[in-house]
Write a structure and sequence with these properties.
Layout lengths: L4 E6 L4 E7 L1 E6 L2 E5 L6 E5 L2 E7 L2 E7 L2 E6 L2 E6 L2 E3 L5 H16 L4 H24 L1
Parallel strand pairs: 1-9
Antiparallel strand pairs: 1-2, 3-4, 3-6, 5-8, 6-7, 7-10, 8-9
Helix pairs in contact: 1-2
């Protein structure tokens, strides 16, 4: 039995994380799930929130947006619209993004623009929630 599972997190911009870990905890469409090596194959929706990866005694926290998860026995592949290591979240920058998004939503904008602003608002809110919980 494999002792680790490969966790890969990819956004449209870059590969954010790629390493062998002991366990991954994430929130899927059916709720929170823990994934260990040799987990049964599955595909599910990723719900915006926090991914927790355990690697030995180290715990890694990653803030993510909505996306998709594919699990095989030796790999967890995540495609998401946003991902940032919790240690790298800039609280002041996230607060500013939140203020800008809220101000933009108060303006008269197209439905398409409103969807983009809602996504930015959700990303900033999630980053602040995780930073304040972990900070």
């Amino acid at each position: 039995m494999a002792a680790t599972i490969k966790l890969e997190i990819v956004t449209p911009e870059a590969k954010i994380f790629s390493d062998d870990v002991d366990m991954v905890t994430l929130t899927g469409g059916e709720g929170e799930m823990g994934i260990l090596p040799q987990h049964m194959p599955l595909m599910t929706q990723l719900v915006a929130g926090e991914i927790v990866a355990q690697k030995g005694k180290e715990t890694i926290f990653i803030c993510v947006g909505d996306g998709f998860v594919q699990v095989t026995g030796d790999r967890v592949a995540i495609l998401t619209d946003m991902a940032i290591n919790a240690d790298n979240i800039d609280e002041a920058r996230a607060e500013e993004a939140l203020r800008r998004a809220e101000a933009r939503l108060a303006e008269k904008i197209s439905d398409e623009e409103a969807a983009r602003v809602q996504a930015a608002l959700a990303h900033a809110t999630m980053q602040l929630k995780i930073k304040r919980r972990r900070g």
